[in-house]
Write a structure and sequence with these properties.
Elements (H helix, E strand, L loop, with lengths): L3 E6 L5 E9 L1 H10 L9 E11 L1 H12 L3 E3 L3 H16 L1 E2 L4 E2 L1
Parallel strand pairs: 2-3, 3-4
Antiparallel strand pairs: 1-2, 5-6
Helix pairs in contact: 1-2, 2-3
Length: 102
Amino acid sequence: MTCKIEQVLALGGFVVLRVSGRIDGTHVETLRELTDKDRTTNGLAIDLTEVTLVSREAVEVLSLAEANGIELRNCPAYVREWVSQERDCADTEVDHDAGGTR
């Protein structure tokens, strides 16, 4: 199964992206565009109930989306763990220009 992203508009302009299938290469950029901060002024959640597989790039997008206040709903346990690890790594990356950690 390929990736399918369905936008559902809720009350007050809140948007839920229902994602199903595999999120990889070609679909990562679409997901990135849909989660762009400028497009989510009324609130956004990503429902991952029917996701079967994610790529590393997809995890990076999901991690960034969550860091920007987008709710990840019904996230499979393995995806949740990977997103958490990605955020932990991003929080402790060394900033070589500043000579320390972020």
